[in-house]
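Hi P.,

Sorry for the delay on this. The queue was packed all week, but I finally got your sequence through. Input first:
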Amino acid sequence: QVQLEESGGGLVQAGGSLRLSCAASVRTFSLYTMGWFRQVPGKERDFVAGVSWRGGTYYSDSVKGRFTISRHNAKNTVYLQMNSLKPEDTAVYYCAAAKFRDTITAGYDYWGQGTQVTVSS
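Then the structure:
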């Protein structure tokens, strides 16, 4: 069983920053590709950023240059540093995991419950 728990969401003004964390309850965390997705009411869940088990990263065009994904394998944790936040970044953010996955933008097997991020203008 793989369980994921997000934290770090909250309310921030436009231009501010937040750091999201996702803790995974799995021993072989270093073998999992990890991703961040976001969803707003009435819309599909969209890919935001991902880091593969090999260490490679990939970002959606809307967050390139503003968000940074990283992982600390010893802590079984993946992070999403969000800078220069915009109101359009408001969403529920979810982390996801898939073992030995080389496709970063899709194909995840496990999902967290999500954490709310609200950016005010």
